[in-house]
Design goal:
heterodimer; A: 129 residues; alpha+beta; six-stranded antiparallel β-sheet; 9 strands; B: 361 residues; six-stranded mixed β-sheet; six-stranded antiparallel barrel; 21 strands
Chain lengths: 129, 361
């Protein structure tokens, strides 16, 4: 199971990349797409929407089930990936390349509260039992 | 947690990299990678499914036909030539569906019934109770495995893997079966494509599976089996009908014989019942995915989706829904998807048959 060391993670299976300018790129993890199976539909948040930490902000649907995507921290949505919206299977093929949305965090320090790769891996291991 | 029941092929599925799930207490493959690819392979070429969790039950005895005439909603009198099969519901006294099944006539007073895995125990109990006056033998055949090979190239691939089967099954019409030694070869399925369902001794299942793999038949999981049957407009027991629903409100009136003089369990209740609902097909007009239990709003009141999915062939969402009578194909209804109402069109199903999109106008 791929869990890149340079990313941050949430308990709800989002990955977060902290860009050089302090904005965040968000997607769902390889583990999450594996649980859901073939993706058929995604609905990213509207650009400009202001999100609270942990707020439901997007939906991914696979053949099997619908699943909510949560805001990793508080902030404003600055971009949504229309390419992935048009080809949801890209999330299965390349979960860490197929980002869903970008956001500007309200407080830069909030990302420190997210999981690192090691803690996320440990959490998946716990869920499996 | 109790141990999951294994089919004779469970270990082989694991070796093939299948994603295994607890399917009603059985250790079954949901896919071997991509459910959507497996779906397309069955529509366009050929795929195979391990369906050994389903239970074959042999019914034998002088009065077997008489017993089945009483037990089943469809009329076994339609079984006029050995090998012939029919689909039927088995009803309770109030006309609810205990299970749906396929019944094959094996000649003389010998029949084989294939029932669903999740209902097998209660089916056996019910049949035993009903069989008493007829003194027939009921023999559950857990010693058999069952493999479904489905798709436009299914038959030719089976003959390639087992050349001995070609002569005996080449001219066999759909919904018929033939027995070759220990193998029971039926031209039936649950995908809307041509193909076979083959029952054979459990100990021979791995060998046969491997021969099919070698012939190029792709293993497919129960995930694609569900999207294929829904596109084909075939009911799933426990979802589209159960003991609390009437077959006449589940799109199954065509399988219930109310015209003949014959008495069968549930008949009186059905004749007295008032039909207010129908099973209809839905096509979602916008983006999203219809799912079971979503509420449907129509101009005659509310209904509910019984099965919904994303259709890989149509590349949009489809569903079966139990809605009020009087809503006709072509009408629009509103489905509650999470916090939103989305528009869907009522359609006549099946949605897809023999690789063909029937919704393309």
């Amino acid at each position: 199971m791929s869990i890149p060391a340079d990313l941050k993670y949430t308990k709800t299976h989002e990955w977060v990349k902290v860009e050089a300018d302090g904005t965040l790129t968000v997607g769902i993890t390889q583990h999450a797409q594996d649980l859901l199976g073939d993706m058929v539909f995604i609905e990213p948040p509207a650009v400009g929407r202001v999100l609270g930490a942990g707020e439901e902000c997007a939906v991914v649907e696979s053949v099997k089930a619908a699943s909510d995507v949560y805001a990793p921290v508080a902030g404003e949505v600055i971009a949504a990936n229309s390419e992935v919206e048009g080809s949801p299977e890209r999330i299965n093929q390349d979960p860490y390349g197929a980002w869903m949305f970008r956001m500007k965090p309200s407080n830069a320090g909030d990302v420190d509260g997210l999981l690192d790769a090691g803690s996320y891996k440990a959490q998946i291991a716990t869920e499996a039992h | 947690m109790s141990e999951l029941k294994q089919t004779p092929l469970s270990a082989i599925h694991r070796q093939l990299g299948a994603k295994m799930v607890d399917f009603g207490g059985w250790d079954m493959p949901v896919n071997y990678g991509s459910q959507i690819e497996e779906h397309h392979v069955v529509r366009r070429d050929v795929g195979m499914f391990d369906v050994s969790h389903m239970l074959p039950l042999d019914v034998e005895g002088e009065r077997a036909r008489e017993f089945l005439t009483h037990l089943l909603a469809n009329n076994v009198a339609k079984l006029k030539t050995p090998g012939r099969a029919i689909y039927s519901c088995m009803l309770n006294e109030v006309g609810g569906v205990i299970d749906d099944l396929i019944i094959y006539w094996r000649g003389d007073s010998r029949f084989r019934i294939v029932v669903n895995a999740g209902t097998a125990d209660k089916d056996i109990e019910w049949m035993h109770k009903q069989a008493q006056p007829y003194s027939v033998k009921l023999m559950p055949r857990r010693d058999l495995a069952m493999i479904a090979i489905q798709g436009p190239n299914a038959r030719s691939k089976v003959w390639e893997a087992m050349p001995g089967l070609q002569d005996v099954s080449e001219t066999m019409a759909p919904f018929n079966a033939v027995e070759v030694g220990d193998m029971f070869v039926a031209r039936t399925g649950y995908t809307g494509e041509d193909g076979f369902e083959i029952m054979l001794p459990a100990k021979a299942a791995a060998f046969f599976w491997q021969a099919l793999l070698d012939a190029g038949v792709k293993p497919c999981g129960l995930g694609s089996r569900d999207t294929l049957r829904l596109e084909a407009g075939m009911n799933l027991y426990g979802q589209d009908m159960d003991e609390t629903t009437s077959p006449l409100e589940s799109g199954l009136a065509w399988t219930v014989d109310l015209n003949s003089e014959r008495e069968f369990i549930g008949k009186a209740a059905l004749q007295k019942s008032e039909i207010t609902k129908q099973l209809a097909g839905l096509l979602l007009l916008g983006k999203g995915v219809l799912r079971a239990h979503q509420k449907v709003h129509t101009r005659h009141g509310e209904g509910e989706i019984t099965s919904g999915t994303f259709s890989p062939t149509l590349a949009r969402s489809i569903a079966l829904a139990r809605i009020p009578l009087g809503i006709a194909p072509g009408e629009e209804v509103a489905v509650e998807i999470r916090d939103r109402k989305m528009t869907a069109k009522v359609v006549k199903y099946p949605f897809v048959r023999n690789g063909k999109n029937l919704m393309a106008s």
